[in-house]
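pls design
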């Protein structure tokens, strides 16, 4: 089973927005403006296909910055897509991803996050 780490775009209760963004930027070595852009497109998956252990460890780091995040099982998403496809009775070539499951990508930022999350 694999998991995605998703930013919600919100801070945790009692967290200051500016301080949370600065902490996230510092922790993951990305610019403050890139962090702001990331938060404006949230909810967004910042790291897909993680083990449960790694997803929860990274979630603790993100939450330690004061930002809210979710650890979501990819199996749930796969099952949802399967049910949608079965109900619609369409072939794989004709499948469209529902808007609710689409994520935004910003290659420069995601490359930095990917490099960071794949360390050690």
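designed seq:
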């Amino acid at each position: 089973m694999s998991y995605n780490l998703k930013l919600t775009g919100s801070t945790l209760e009692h967290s200051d927005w500016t301080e949370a963004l600065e902490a996230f930027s510092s922790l993951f070595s990305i610019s403050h403006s890139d962090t702001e852009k990331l938060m404006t497109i949230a909810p967004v998956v910042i790291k897909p296909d993680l083990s449960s252990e790694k997803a929860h460890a990274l979630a603790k780091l993100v939450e330690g910055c004061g930002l809210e995040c979710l650890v979501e099982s990819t199996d749930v998403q796969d099952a949802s897509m399967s049910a949608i496809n079965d109900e619609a009775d369409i072939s794989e070539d004709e499948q469209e991803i529902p808007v609710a499951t689409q994520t935004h990508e910003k290659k420069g930022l995601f490359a930095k996050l990917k490099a960071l999350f794949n360390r050690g």
